[in-house]
Amino acid sequence: MTGSLSRFSINQMTVKQLAMPELVDACLELGVPGVGLWREPVRTYGLEATAKLIRDAGLTVTTLCRGGFFTAIDAAERAKALDDNRRAVEEAATLGTEVLVLVSGGLPTGSKDLHGARERIADALAELGPYAEQHGVRLAIEPLHPMYASDRCVVSTLTQALDLAERFPAHQVGVTVDTYHIWWDDRAPAQIARAGASGRIHTFQLADWTTPLPEGVLNGRGQIGDGAIDMREWQGYVEAAGYTGAIEVELFNDALWARDGREVLAETAERFVAHTA
Amino acid sequence: MTGSLSRFSINQMTVKQLAMPELVDACLELGVPGVGLWREPVRTYGLEATAKLIRDAGLTVTTLCRGGFFTAIDAAERAKALDDNRRAVEEAATLGTEVLVLVSGGLPTGSKDLHGARERIADALAELGPYAEQHGVRLAIEPLHPMYASDRCVVSTLTQALDLAERFPAHQVGVTVDTYHIWWDDRAPAQIARAGASGRIHTFQLADWTTPLPEGVLNGRGQIGDGAIDMREWQGYVEAAGYTGAIEVELFNDALWARDGREVLAETAERFVAHTA
């Protein structure tokens, strides 16, 4: 059985060629009920203006991407990162979303200490969690594929993300479940169950795995249905774990970005219906 | 404390620009005692000729790369792969190495079933293991980094590799521990201990993790010391697990391949001494 658009959310990055009003128009035209926003385009259009635009259109902001980058060793850099994350929490609250996605950060230059970097993330969450709670925002640690471990995110598996999250209350810190990052991991289904049992699945995102990977491996996330990932299988895991929220499609893909944004959004909505339950 | 060359083995792929006799000459000149060979250049120079050349030079063949590619569904393809792996076992025996490295294979075209692919690997090992034993050769399943899960190797972690290997006797099937593929995995140290406890560390290989990754992510393995991996830390894990064998350096790197092969071998030997204990 195929799905409907009722739980679909388009992550803004998938169609970053659309300016904010174009994105909202396209969502209304296609019947897309939710959007995941990024801080940079929100800043470009204006925070309050974006909040009003989305609210007036009746769209739901499912997540704000992204906070994080907590792994610096230098005290001044760490203070600056925490300040920036407090701003991200405030922006999420203003935009009316409860979920701030966190990309935790890679190894500092010259460091080979993954364990130490992961501990510094925990230190930052201890400060940021209560601040987020005060603003009605939950933090969603996103494990990124292990190919990003050195330069982007030392949290590589759901297991590691939950080991961090569970040091804090679930309404402060949970996880992002993104198929692109975890599909290879035979332990991930059990970790989704673990996350669900403590109410820590704060968002669920889809992207497909296609090869060859492009240089830098950032912008090769496949359109839903084009790759190796069985989306219904992963939807089944999160739903069995009690997740009933939005399902975001977040693609970073040079080929999609080169096309007409509305056309890409329409195609993504079709793929979503065809490949979810 | 830095290391010596006594346990160093140069994997032939690191300096693939050197023809077989050039490789042997360079090893003798630099005092490199071991080589890891690949089937294709062995075939180019001739199997018996290579065996004699290496034997006469007094070098040790630490591994033969590689067998594997067991994940096909089609019966004829599977039979062909098994035949080819029997030839690889025979070649290893002729070359005088006890270790055949296995790269297990990716998802068949159109398949999204990682679990099924892993089971077909087990089926192949059940046939190949006894054949290898008869030839005095041990099979070394190599978990490849999760970024290769779809197109090259569905075995992505040491845990998965050992789950497969432990279905068979240790003198038939063990694992390859390669820093490049497992360095991000906080469970890998415990899995190395697990492998050592059952005598299944059949080879230990070094490569460093550098970014950005190149397109296709195959040929960007970093020279020892250039990246994020603490080689002594991993050497410590395998030695604590009882491994006393050769340490191979295996780099696939376009920049190294573009240079003079002897110069690259000399540099690699220097880096080995500087970064091992």
Automatic annotation (TrEMBL), chains A, B:
The Gene Ontology terms for molecular function here are:
isomerase activity
Q: Where is the Xylose isomerase-like TIM barrel domain?
A: 24-267
- Keyword list, A-Z: Isomerase
InterPro entries, per the entry:
IolE/XylAMocC-like (IPR050312), Xyl_isomerase-like_sf (IPR036237), Xyl_isomerase-like_TIM-brl (IPR013022)
Q: A Pfam family name for this chain?
A: AP_endonuc_2
**Keyword DNA-binding found:** no
**Isomerase as a keyword?**
yes
Specify the superkingdom. Answer: Bacteria
Under the heading SUPFAM superfamilies, the entry gives: Xylose isomerase-like
What is the name listed in the Swiss-Prot or TrEMBL entry for this protein? Xylose isomerase
| Organism, as annotated | Streptomyces phaeofaciens
